[in-house]
Design brief:
The protein contains eight helices and no strands. It has about 190 residues and is mainly α. It has a single domain, classed as Four Helix Bundle (Hemerythrin (Met), subunit A) (Up-down Bundle). The radius of gyration is 18 Å and the shape is globular.
Amino acid sequence: MANRFQAFLFRTRGIYLFVSLIGSMALKGYLGGTTPRLFFVVGIFWVSLVQAFRVYAAAYLWGRQAVTTVGADFLCTNGPYAHLRNPFYLGNFLIGIGICLMINVWYAYVLFGASYAFVYSVVIPYEEQFLEEKFGKAYADYKAATPRLIPRLTAYRGGGNVIPDYRAGILGELHVPIFLIIVISIAYALFAR
């Protein structure tokens, strides 16, 4: 039963973060409030920078990161993966914080943080279990030496040498900027002053 729930949450993982952000915007729209334009400028810069990092990470997975089932053709341990095991999930968190900045209410951070913690406290162990079963000792060594979400400065040295495919990384990430443009446009139209 637990694996079915984990698989379902993995398939739908992006929805919960989206709902928390849209819910925060709806609540702010109902309660009233504005956001200074400077917050949008800083937020857009921040989100763009983080999205560039996500494209960089996607290049190391050859654009195969937007999946609905857990899988891996290879164990990537270089590039951003040499510094942390989950660069996309860190990116999702940082993008959410940038959008919360643009929403500019305390409860946006609370709702987003709660949904993020709920989703990834289930999804990350589910993925790790798969990777441990598929790659055995190679993944266990990598997992022991590389942090989950907070990057370390020194790179993991025991890994392979995946050659990044930046074209595939960009194409694999096209859905995210579209989502961001929609959410940021709605927030700007409703709250910018």
